[in-house]
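Protein modeling request. Please complete all fields; requests missing the sequence field cannot be processed.
Requester role: graduate student
Desired output: 3D structure, token encoding
Chains: 1
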Amino acid sequence: MKKLLSGLVTLLAATSVPAGATVLSGLIDGGSVQGAGSFVNLTGTGPFTVGQDNFNTNNFYAFDEAQNFVLTDELIANFGLTNIAAGTRVNSHFVFFDPLARETLQGTITFDTPVLAAITLRSQLIASNYLGAAGVTYLDPASVGLEPSVDFITLGSPGANSLRLNFLSTDAPGDHFRVITLASSPVPEPQTWAMMLAGVGMIGAAMRRRAKVSVRYQPV
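Delivered output (220 residues):
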């Protein structure tokens, strides 16, 4: 019986999958690139390079990085939660706007879990590149990140899933920042639920058989 229960727990741990953990959508609704650019989700389209004039379009981009990642050390950010404790399970996403000429942009980007923090400073971006996506090369020129008092991001309310972007002047090397969202707990895949239910049925049958045996041989 103990072996059967242990097997079910092991099965659940081995076949669980993340709930969510992705960029959902983006929208350009203002600035000089309105009508000339759009949002592009690059998740799963690598390899590519970001950080210094690598795209030169009127679009703004995002892609998912590390998902359901348990921090082994404190993560330092400069927007939202500035110190995310070790042991926190997070998702990471990279957002950037890399036009050919000096442009402005207003828009939103939405994730499927609440935003915890954003990292917009060069030193913190470099320090957190361990959260980066496989196949992506991250460059670190002197001006990578967002320019203070020129580029703004805002969160509608605590626990919100969307960020508002307001880039008042963007040129080389572009605007780049990392967003940290709260990771959902892993959940079982549908086939795992079916196997678990079958296992529970086996446990119930075994318990009934044991009950019958104990009554049959009960001393009088």
